[in-house]
Design a protein that fits this description.
This protein has two domains: about 10-100; about 110-225, Cytidine Deaminase, domain 2, CATH 3.40.140.10. The protein has nine helices and five strands, in the order H-H-H-H-H-H-H-E-E-H-E-H-E-E. By secondary structure, it is of the alpha+beta class. Helix content is about 50%, strand content about 15%.
Amino acid sequence: MSSEQPTTKKSKSHNEGHRQRLRERFIIGGADALPDYELLELLLFMAIPRRDVKPIAKELLSTYGSLSALMNAPHGSLSQMDGISENTATAIKAVTAIAHRMIKQEIIKQPVLNNWTRLMDYCHMSMDFETKEHFRILFMNKKNMLIADEVQASGTVDHTPAYPREIMKRALELGATAMILMHNHPSGDPKPSKADIEMTRQIIEASRPFNITVHDHIVMARGCHFSFKQEGLI
């Protein structure tokens, strides 16, 4: 685990001046006035109060490749980085969790099918950086409002089991009348496999006796996705 290092009085004065200028630029110009590394600096200011965090911010972005990948990195991976303590890693993950929850709350407020772009933002944020496949279901009521978002199964890097009987049982427990199926491909290719297509068919068949509609099956990959409905597979 890394820890923050002490600074001299001279460097402390310089840091304080830099921090104040950066805060003022953010307050006046908003997030668009700052590049990614400076936005990250603002967050690190609160977690690391007595150190120049610009090199840390740049190193984090260089290591993970993007702000999204960094914010979605596992806690254990972050805390192994030079200059990042467990407390700092927790602060980064807390901001990510808040962002996830904000988008989810926006989705819940209105019918999911009327807010598709925001739904995809939420799903990409939740699943793009997973290293294993997860099969997830969005359960909806008769007004197509989200009532539950649940991971039904987790698998390996290229396979996740899904059991129609268990899915129907859970849908009935929740009183759901519609679902959107979803799983991720850590490989980065969102194209569904033959097994994905067959699994979807089985779930749709199982849902019919209960009058539960399967609106779509979305395969998520980093920065892209595949919609069964849009591609004519549902």
